[in-house]
Amino acid sequence: MSQSFSFIHAADLHLDTPFTGMGSLPQKLRERVLHSTFVAYENLIQLCIERNVDFLLLAGDIYDASDRSLRAQIYFREGLEKLARHGIQVYLVHGNHDPLDRKELSLSLPVNTHVFPPGQVASYGYERDGKELARIYGVSYPRSQVKESYLPAFKREEGDFFAIGLLHTNVDGNSAHDNYAPVARAELIHQGFDYWALGHIHQKNIIHNEEPVILYPGNIQGRNVKETSERGCYFVKVQDKKVRELSFCATDCLRWYQEEVHVSDCEQIQESLDLLEAKKEEVRIQAGGRGALVRFHLTGRTSLHPFFHDEKNLADIQEMLRRQEEERDDFVWIDSFAVGTRPLIQLEQLAEEETLPGDFYQLSQEYRNMEKVHRVRKDVLTPLLDHYLLRVYFRTLSDEEILEWIEEAETLGLDLLVSGEDGK
Amino acid sequence: MRIKRIVINGFGSLHDFDPGELANGLTIFEGRNEAGKSTIMAFIRAILLGFPTGKGKGSKYERYEPFSGGPYGGTLTLVDDQGQEYRIVRNRVTGKSGGQVTVFLPDGTQEGESFLQRLIGGISPVLFKQIFAFSLTELQQMDFLENEEINSYIYSAGMGTGIPVMEVDRKLDGAMNALFKPRASTPLINQHSAKLKELEKEISRLQQQSSQYNQLLAEEQEIEKTMVQGEQESEGLRRKRHELDIMGKGRESWEALWELRFRLNNLPDPGEFPTEGLERLDQILLEKRRLEVLLKQKKEKRTQLQAEMKRIERNLALLREKHALENLLRKVGRVKECQERLSGNRVLIQQYEEAVELQLRQLGGSWQPEDLLAMDISLGQREQVRFFRNGIQEEGNEQLRVESQRERLKKEWQKQKALQASLEKEVSFSSLAQLEKEIPIREAALKEIERIRHTIEGVQREEAHLLERIKDIEERGKERPVKEKSMRQMIFLVFIFGVIVSIIIGFQNFWLGLLTGAFTMFFVFLLIKQNKSERGEAPQVEQGKWISKLRELQLQLDDNRREQDQLHKQLQEQGKKVGLSSFSLSSISRVEEKTREMRREREGILRLKERIKDYRQQLSLLEEEYRSLEEEGKGETKIAQQWQEWLLQRNLESSLSPEGVMDFFRLVERGRDLYSHLCQAREEYKGDQQFISTFSQQVESLFNKATVQGFSLEEPLTSFYLLHKKMEEEEEKFYQWNQWEKELNTLEEELAEVLLTYDSYEQQEKELYGRGGVAEEEEFRRKGGIHRQRAQLQNEIQRRESELLVLTGTEEKKDALETSLQTYDSFTIEEELQKVIEKGNALQHQLNQWRERKGQVREQIIRLEQEGTLSRLLQEKEETLTELKREAKKWGVYAICRHLLKESREKYERERQPGVLREASHYFSKITGGSYARIVAPIGSETLYVEGEKGEQIEPGYLSRGTREQLYLSMRFALAREFSRQVSLPLVMDDILVNFDLGRLRKTVEALREISKYHQILFFTCHPYVSKILLEEIEGSKLIQIGNPIGDYKENVLF
Q1: Which residue in A19, A360, A421 is closest to B904 by CB distance?
Q2: Looking at the predicted complex, does its ipTM rise above 0.95?
Q3: Residue B866 contacts A, CB cutoff 8 Å
């Protein structure tokens, strides 16, 4: 008898949560953005049905409890019900964004859905034709901040089944994410499980690709400019307790892009505009019918440097590139520009000069260390960062970001000091 | 940029001032006080930067308006580095105290103030006054360096930036303020912050709302539970009510049923009885009655028919001949036709006979009708005749043509003949002969006459000559008188002779005569003249010679006269020849005329003769032609003979022409037609007669066969019709009889059938009685009545029972209903029903309320579930936050930039010298001969320091007046150089060197020389020694003296 079965592993649905780090949108696009997590979720459900999988694993952060979105939960339940109608089981754990202590709604979930209890590892067996093919172990977050590791509690029982661990965790303390329920990769490998279905990290990542397979599927829909590239879930096929197929399936309906545009070859403004326009169309093709949200990184040494450093010019370009986009299904929305162009002046040469720009350049170069960053934060930026109304928004402002500011300040200063000389 | 020319129309004390072209380098304006040096400097400032507009005290003096009125302003001609000339004209204009400026460009276009500003590098009036056009007053001002603008020049110069640092600082500050101010609301970040707070408030409100959701869900569940119970209760009531309803409805049926059952039980059982026995009996009896009546009717009818048939008589023999009669009927039409045609044909035959007779008579007595048929008038024959006819006709035509030709020729001939005859008549051949003879004679004679006349003339001339000579000799040789006398005589003779000759000649030819006359007169005149001249000479010596000669001449003269006579005679003779009795010269011309006439006549006759000859020729031609025609005419008559033979062969009269024969043919044809018509008519007539008689015989035979009377041989048709009518009657009878016979047969059959049916009914009646167990009708009917009553009751019972069954649905329920109806009367049912209805209504009302509440709750739940505002607000919050952070970043960048700029400036000030100060140090050191090496200026501080030889820093206040002026002058030179990065403007200096010692003066002049390479310098002085040094030291400089000269500066040199 063949013991093959298949499942889909997804995590970090973050249903009905806002997109962060993007500027204001026209109404039409905002609606698209607001629906994007739902559409991605529907795509996921549809995929389960199409592939006729045995079960679906959800490794936490299905919605953001703090947002208290009813809609998210209702949608979620509807999806589960749909799966129930197709006899597909669902195993899920709650993560740091939807811990069970914040579960403020008492929505009853359909019978096919198995939620792991908070704080203690439990297991559910998946049986088919009276035979247990797989056993899924998991634990939900009882509260949002779980600093301790749950891994020791994952104990594989005796039995002839495929063991799956369902865990919302930060493996090896990825600094880009909150370090919750931290575990080490090596520990996971040696825990005696066949598959670790992880959640929490939004970037898909296969940590270990066989015996056991350990992976993050990433989130199902990119929700900020850092979450570029395709987003979705993993389809896993198991035969004789071995993973035979592991394939990524995209579910996202909007996609983020950070595109670098070298404008160093552009001498005329129009050339750079054409370049951007062409890049935009390139993105449209890449997005393959999805809506695309784009940040353009302008780089290169160019005579147009002062032009791009003028806010008004950027606003004009942005408006030009955005024109008519909101009417399209496959829109490409230029969210912002990151201007990293450099002026034509030779900075190395400048550093040698005994002129004010030369001194300025040398000085700003000296500001590239953390000590100076802290000084800047304390001495220069205090009026803004410590403002009684605003400080709440700048708590997360990192030193790296301030360093970036310093770099831009250097560019700006040189522009201002030198632009008069080259007459542009 | 330099000033090429200054033209002052009116400015201060100066009018129409134009010192000519200025030098490229240094131009020195030298003049006494009040000469207008400062005015010129002020003028330059005014033209370039506008008339002074200050309002304060003394400003009107600064405006330099001409004291005595008149034009205000003038022109500066500027030349830029490319050598382009710009003429700048500034004039007073009302409403604009700075004046109206016009810049005339090299290409002829005109520009205004803004162009001028660009042209001079956008320099401000203050800066210009301080750096480029200054007097000792400005030079001595201590606060010179406190001017911010100048300050920024000092520091931006050499910093490697074209934009003043302070401006950058200001810019950054402005940008930051636009983004964020801690206690403002309009900057962008503040705005975003406010929006965020609002959004957060709204979000929190909505989140509160969503916690109601659980309560709502619980309430919904509770209501649902209650409602299920209510529905169940309601269902029970509904059932009860239904039961009672049925009881109410079934009560009546049940009561009826009960009574029916009772009645049935009380009826006796009649026992065996045939089904529907009574009805069947009634039917049988009824049927029997009907059949009896029918039988009677049919029998009567049979008797009647038989009687009718006996009455009819029939002729069957006639009927048998029906076929023959019909055959004859078909012939009737033709018989009628024949009868009608007979009389017509009779007349026709008669007519044809007459016509044929007539035709035959026309053809000739001997012609018989048979001949007509024998005659061949076939198409071939006709064709032959036509051939002959054409032949003969053609022949006739030819003859006609020849005849007419002949006629024409004849006429022509006659005409020609007549013409010839008339001509012949006209010409007299005899006169021609005479003329022919006469004309040559006359012509010869005339020729002779002419010749003779010529000879006579020659002889006469000789005679005259001789006479002259004679006279001559006589006069000379003889006595004068004699001579005279002879001379006179000779002249007279000559005269007479000349006259005569002239007349003769004139008779013949007037002009010749006149000429001869004139000649004679002239000759006579000559003679007279000679005579007179000779008279004087008279040579006596040669007289003898003369006489002999004279005699000789006399002899000659005589000979001549004889010859003359001779000739005259000849003339006479000739005259006769031409028919002149007496010859004269005039008659000669007549003769000549006559001769010409005769010649013309002869020519006319000759021409006529020629024509007559032509006619004759033509006549003979005509005759020839005529003869040939005659010849042609004789070729005929061959075809005519053939024709005769043809006629003979056919036994036709030989006189017939082909046309005649054609006519004859036509007659024969017609005759033949007529004859054939006749034969045809006769044939027809005979046929018709025969047909009628046959018909008549047939009719008669029919009469006989059918034994019918009334046949008439004369009128076979009438008889036939009679018979025909009889036949029709007989047929009618035959049809009728047949009809009756058929009817009778049918009747017989029907009668038999009716009788049979009647018997069967009788049988049935008896069987019915037997089955009912009775013997007779009465008893059968009584028994049947009881039986029917029972059946009715049973039916009724069944109906009622089925009513109840319909009400209840099943047999069991029906039985239950009957059972319960035994205990419930209708009143109880009604009472019970009322109670149930009331209870049900109340419950329904309650249910509706619950349902409504449930709907509301559901609606709220759905609303909450579908609530998208929260997500939208959350999204908006994120967006706003992003915007805020983006702006914050901008602000941060600005702030950091400003901070960095500040620090770097401080560093710069600490560590580096601005370029201007370096430059100034250079000049200052030079002017002071190295006493001061360096000028130092900390940024932001309001003063400069000079470094002494030992490096000590000295404030300018501590310097001597001259040294201080030298310091400031050096600063100005350096600033002018700095400014020349934009535009190199001329330096205008008003007597600034007066406080300098000679050594430093010379050093300063050296510095000026250096400066003059980059800047045009206009230097004003009232000190000739200054001019002198400048002129000496700086090559190419130009001196312009204003006002009265100061005098030889050598005298004024102080040292």
Answers
A1: A360
A2: no
A3: yes
